[in-house]
Amino acid sequence: MSAFAAAMDVLAADPNIGTDASYRAGGIGAPVLLRVMRSAPDRLGDAFGTSVIQASDVLTVAIAVLPAVDADDTFTLGADTLTVQHAERDAAGIAWRVFCRR
What we know:
Layout: H1 3-13, E1 18-24, E2 32-39, E3 42-47, E4 50-55, E5 57-62, E6 74-77, E7 80-89, E8 95-101
Antiparallel strand pairs: 1-2, 1-6, 2-5, 3-4, 5-8, 6-7, 7-8
C-alpha cells in the first residue's frame, strides 16, 4: 500500500471527513457498505442566458474498496440517494471522483 492509499484510508475513517454509505451497482442488488468523502460544491450553470447556481455532490471513494463505478449506480448516505453521472480516477489511481445527482 502506498503512502497515498494509506492517507486515503485514514481520511475516509475520520468521522469529521468520511461518512458511511451503501453502494448499489445499477441501483439494484445487494448493497456494498463503505466509507466515502462527500463534498457539495456549487456549480455555475446557464439557463436561458441567466447564470444559475446548482448544487452538486462529489464523492471520493477508494478504488481499493470499489474497483468499478458506472453511470446510474447509486450511493445512499443517510436519507440521501445519489445517482452516479460519471466517475473519474485521480492522477495517482487511488480514488474515484464520483459526480452525482440527487
